[in-house]
Every structure is written in C-alpha cells, then in structure tokens.
Amino acid sequence: MPTSSSDTLNLLLQRLGLAALVAGMCWLSSILTRGDEGVSAIWLTNGLVLGLLLKTRDAEWPGLALAALLGNFVANAIALPTPLLGAGLALCNSLEVLLAAHLLRRFAGERLDLASPRNLGGFLLIALLLAPALTAVAGTLLLTVNLGLDDATTVLTTFVGWLAEIGRAH
User: Among residues 29, 35, 49, which one has the least CA distance to residue 95?
Assistant: First the structure.
C-alpha cells in the first residue's frame, strides 16, 4: 500500500505503464495474427498479465487487473467494430487471467514451481485448457450477438477460438 504521495504517483505510473504495454501487445496481436474467423492466433498479453499476477501478492491483483482491462479495452476500441464488443472481449480476457491466477494460487499456493510435475500439470490444465475454454465460449457469445453469426459459424468460431486460446503464450 502506498505510504506517501510519491509512492501513490509511482504506483499510478506503473499501472498506466502496464495498461499501455497491454494495449500495445493486444493491438499487435490483433493486427499481425488475425485470421479469417476474426480470432487472433497469438495473444501474448494474457501470459504477461498471468505471470505478473502469479508473482505478486493477492492484494495487488485488483490494480493489475484494472490496468490490463484498460489496456485491452483501448486496443479493442481501435481494432474492433463496436465499443460493446471491445468492452466484452476485454472483460473476457481479464476474467480468463484472473480465473487462471486464482485457481493456480489455490492449487499451488504462493509459489508456483513449474519444475514440479504436479504444478506443471495443474498449470497446463488450468491456464491452457480450463480458463481459455470458458472464455472462448463467452467471447463467442459476444461475437454472435454483436456480429449476428449463424449457428454453424458460432460453433466453428468457438472451436477456433478455443484452439487459439490453447496456442496463446500463457
């Protein structure tokens, strides 16, 4: 917790820096790797934010998550056709990272040692399969509502989105 006005300013600048970094990474992922289905194949941002969350105390998570959400939203506002869709997808990314971090913290405690086969298996299951699968469904619902996708396209987009989530660097 900041103890002086200079500490508060320093913390605010750190969070704004994170938001800018997230926005830049999101924008690059959107521009450079977007496929025909509208899904980006690489999304480095969630891996960065998950790593930050897992390296910090739980009390710091709200500020980090809000900074990441802001960065996601700014990038989506630039790259996507509607603000509602951009806000929804930014929220999906933030929830994915928070869910993965929370479950991993409960599973492995304060120190996630990926050299341990048990922890590595839990990380792969939670961060690369479970959390991305849930947010792929939520993201597809947002895309369906906002872009008017038909049922077949919705199923395909969900599957492609989930595969892209698995391939993202977490």
Answer: 49
In this structure, what are the phi and psi dihedrals at residue 109, rounded to the nearest 5 degrees?
A: 85, -165
Q: What 3-state DSSP class applies to 40?
A: strand
Average confidence (pLDDT) over 103-128: 91
- Nearest 5°: the CA angle 72, 78, 84 is 70
CA-wise closest residue to 43 among 105, 114, 128, 138:
128
Q: Which two tokens stand for residue 25?
A: 């990474």
3-state helix vs strand vs coil in the chain, percent to 5 = 80, 0, 20
Element (H, E) at 20: helix 5-33
What are the backbone angles phi and psi of residue 34, rounded to the nearest 5°? -75, 130
How many residues in the chain?
A: 170
**Tokens linked to 32:** 């450079």
Question: Looking at the whole model, is its pTM more than 0.85?
Answer: no
